[in-house]
Amino acid sequence: MLYGPEGSENEVLEGFRNMGQVLAKDRFTLKQAAMTARRSWQLTLTNDIKLNLGRGDTMKRLNRFVELYPVLQQQAQAEGKRISYVDLRYDSGASVGWIPAPVEEPNQQQTQAQVQAE
């Protein structure tokens, strides 16, 4: 999905393609790209992580996310949470929003086997 202010169709499509290529190199897939009226980029990946890139240096900021992701993912797994969003509008670094990791339900066959064994 692509969103943008009226008259920005070509710019949004080009941005979607370019940013999608950068992300694809590291096995991320771009699900949605939105450009606000102030020309600020907001992306959503297929894993539902939202990226706030702001107005300038979008490719530099996108590359920063790719570099940070392994560390963020490691922290998420260690602490039982998931990345909700990454705000990359800073000159260096980022702010990260977390949500609880989904609770995995036991396999129904295992549950049935346990009930039958009792």
TrEMBL record:
What Gene3D superfamilies would the database entry show?
A: Cell division protein FtsQ/DivIB
- What residue intervals traverse the membrane? none
Q: State whether keyword Cell membrane applies.
A: yes
Classification via InterPro entries: Cell_div_FtsQ/DivIB_C, FtsQ, FtsQ_C_sf
Coiled-coil region list: none
Q: Which UniProt keywords apply?
A: Cell cycle, Cell division, Cell inner membrane, Cell membrane, Membrane, Transmembrane, Transmembrane helix
Q: Name one GO biological process term.
A: cell septum assembly
Superkingdom of origin organism = Bacteria
Q: Name one Pfam family in it.
A: FtsQ_DivIB_C
Instruction: Say if the entry is tagged with keyword Zinc.
Output: no
- Where would I find the Cell division protein FtsQ/DivIB C-terminal domain in this sequence? 2-89
Q: By what name is this protein known?
A: Cell division protein FtsQ
Traced from the root, the source organism's taxonomic lineage reads: Bacteria, Pseudomonadati, Pseudomonadota, Gammaproteobacteria, Enterobacterales
